[in-house]
Amino acid sequence: MNILILGSGGREHALAWAVMQNPKCDKLIVAPGNGGIAQIADCAKINIDDGATVVTFVEENAIDFVIIGPEAPLAAGVADRLREAGVLVFGPSEEAAKLEASKSFTKEICDAAHAPTAAYGHFKDPEAAKAYIREQGAPIVVKADGLAAGKGVIVAMDDQTALDAIDDMFGGAFGGAGAEVVIEEFMEGEEASFFILCDGKTALPIGTAQDHKRVGEGDTGLNTGGMGAYSPAPVLSDEIAQKALDEIVQPTIDEMARRGSPYQGVLYVGLMIKDGQPRLVEYNVRFGDPECQVLMMRLGAQALDLLHAAAEERLSETRVNWADDHAITVVMAANGYPGSYEKGSEIKGLKALPEDSMNMVFHAGTTEKDGAMTATGGRVLNVTARGATLQEARDRAYAMVEAIDWPEGFYRRDIGWRAL
Ligand code: AMP
Ligand code: GLY
Asked: What is the mean pLDDT of the chain?
């Protein structure tokens, strides 16, 4: 099989690494890819948000199967253009991708599916939104309706912060994404993510994870895309996972099918868990980054068979070979991230590190230049390891982190603390 993966982050490096291990993969191209991906696969610089460009590329390169990594091409309908052209693709349609691209759409689906989630109001008018905030009172959560690169959510502990957030959003702080807002009840509990493959009808769980969103140790400081993650998430016990499947995931898939927009791809289910009850925080229509890195580390080569089965609507006859293992990833980021940071510094010490089924450094933001690996993003490396226990995986990952010579970067020393 000739395979094309769309994306350029650590998520796509991990997907590429898993896919390459499967003997069914004859040729792999990643577009656009990055410095680390270029070491294991061909990379092609094309505009992946443009469906026609991707279709042409697929035809020219005799691609049999396309795996879409990030949300932007999904929200832009690239999966639809590929399906129309008769290409096998892993990833939801533009309509189904609204589960991530529109928070009010997700809330509407939850209502129809009777899925437990935060109570909410949906507003297109700032004064009505403010009246709702004054009536409900803080703590309260204000969300820009559209895609805002993970920044459109304000968890307000006092009324004024929530009211200011309304002014910012309607003032255009998140562009078009903030022209509508969802205001939610603040939910307490512990967060965890549940990853489900879907083929329009069947839901197949492929793992749980928890990430660390804050930049600083002890989960303090500014929000980031994620400074580390581990799998499995101990808080998502088998019993709670089953509840989430029965009460949230399957009813959502059934409702999407009923509306004529079946969900195919991976559903990233963000949950808040309290007193044994899971409630939905959000859906994403793609793998989490860096959660994907720990999931791929654990699934290995079978990941390709699973994604392929989802695309071919064969999940009801597909099983996951579970290993009783743990994986962790530690993000190394450029000094200054998530604020402004320098690009172009050299990362040394990578070549001496082990690269096997227990240890991998996935690249998130690197470019190879004259034989040297340089940092070209905020989150730059995902140092990932597997072990029989989380402690064992963690020790392996940090041993690699310490062997990397990159003074212009930093990392958190406490990834996994909650689970240990
Ligand atoms: P989202 O982009 O919807 O995942 O929101 C980003 C983060 O905000 C989540 O990971 C939660 O930590 C927090 N959050 C979102 N909605 C709520 C809520 N209703 N109650 C408490 N925290 C929330
Ligand atoms: N790590 C969080 C996300 O991918 O959205």
From this structure: 96
- Residue type, position 318, single letter: T
Q: Where are the domains of the chain?
A: 2-93, 125-179, 190-317, 326-410
Pocket of ligand 2 (CB under 6 A): 150, 211, 225-226, 284, 288-289, 291
Report how far ligand 1's centroid is from the alpha carbon of 143 (Å): 9
**If you measure from the C-alpha of residue 94 to the centroid of ligand 1, how many angstroms do you get, rounded to a whole number?**
23
pTM, rounded to two decimals: 0.96
Question: For 8-65, how does the pLDDT look when each residue is reduced to its tens digit (9 = 90+)?
Answer: 999 999 999 999 999 999 999 999 999 999 999 999 999 999 999 999 999 999 999 9
Residues ≥6 apart with Cβ < 8 Å to 29: 2, 3, 4, 5, 41, 42, 43, 44, 61, 63
Q: 190-317 architecture in CATH?
A: 2-Layer Sandwich (3.30)
- Determine which residue's CA is closest to atom 2 belonging to ligand 2: 288
Shortest-distance ligand to the CA of residue 223? 1
CATH architecture label of 2-93: 3-Layer(aba) Sandwich (3.40)
Pick the atom of ligand 1 nearest to 284's CA. Answer: 4
Q: What is the pLDDT of residues 197-247, one digit of tens each?
A: 999 999 999 999 999 999 999 999 998 999 999 999 999 999 999 999 999
CA of 278 to the centre of ligand 2 (A): 19
3-state secondary structure of 129: helix
In angstroms, rounded to a whole number, what is the distance separating the alpha carbons of residues 290 and 379? 10
Pairing of strands 372-375, 346-347: antiparallel
Using CA atoms, how far apart are residues 195 and 213, in angstroms rounded to an integer? 18
Q: Which CATH class is domain 125-179?
A: alpha beta
Span 366-390, average pLDDT: 96
Q: Decide: 330 in ligand 1 pocket, CB within 6 A.
A: no
pLDDT at residue 148 greater than cutoff 90: no
CATH hierarchy code of domain 326-410: 3.90.600.10
